[in-house]
# Entry
Amino acid sequence: SKFNKWKQNAITVAGGNGDGQKLNQLNYPQGTFIDKNKNIFIADSSNHRIVEWKYNAKEGQIIAGGNGYGNQMDQLFSPLDVIVDEQNHSIIIIDFGNRRVIQWLNQTQQILIHNIYCWGLAMDKHGFLYVSDREKNKVRRWKMGEYNNEGIIVAGGNGQGNQFDQLHSPDFIFVDDDQSVYVSDRQNHRIMKWGKDAKEGTIVAGGNGEGRSLNQLSYPQGVIVDNLGQIYVADSMNDRIMRWCEGKDEGGIVVGGNGEGNQLNQLHHPFGLSFDGERNLYVADLRNHRIQKFEIIL
# Structure
């Protein structure tokens, strides 16, 4: 069918045991990445670690950090997002508190990008790396393996603001197969889409001020796009996940939207979003310290 639907009661697939640093706990999970075997990689920000929860596991394993916060080679400081390059089995991490993007390969850490107030991370099918810069209100792209430069600006970069060529505190990002960049433009309460080589973006969700109507967003976080071009947004302060079709004036609630809470049909400040290969929807439920899996209804 054109519109997928998801079960409204989620399954908790990671965390959900209160906030803490045990292996079955999370502490403000932010970005997530699901690999092709449905293993879940989580930026467990307040535990300063990246954890991997294997498919159906009851606890996670630490794959980076977990040695307290700091800037030593075995430490992280508030990691916000993570992607796995399944080609070379490396893990790329937004090490927010240390203002850097780092790569872990076989327990060895390498700093890819220095001195960047970064938040979101994406990789396209050609292996280019995209990073959002909240301080400079832009998204930059680097060629894999070539990080000793400023990167190329692919969205924003025209100062802080709400014009079509501007962003205000961009956080999570998504890149599609055409190298269009979708930016969660947080302080503008909108999602922007910048086509390849575009000089300005278009509003594809929100953009009608902060609020909870179906044409509004409130501090959007995670953004992902499906193969039909439908845009899914973690509408964080409204505790719901929205779906927008490009060109439409309003979105629809996919899951959540049942008030702030910890029931299985509720969210409390949703952050990162991911799909697995079957289009099950995973939500990093920040203030509930858990990852919620909403199963697709086939």
In short: The radius of gyration is 18 Å. The chain has a mean pLDDT of 96.
